[in-house]
Amino acid sequence: MEIITVHTTQNIDIDYEIGGLGERILARAIDFGVFIPFLLAGAFLVSTLSNTGIGIYFIILAVLFVFYDLLCEVFFNGQSAGKLVMKIRVISLDGARPKFSQYLLRWLFRLVDFSLTFQLGALISAAVTENGQRIGDLMAGTAVIRTIPRTKINNIVFTPSDDDYQPVFMQVSQLNDQDIGLIQEVIDNYLKTGNTIVVYNMADKIRQLLSISLPPNMNSMQFLQTIVKDYSHITAQADAL
Question: Are residues 162 and 116 in the same domain?
Answer without folding.
Answer: no
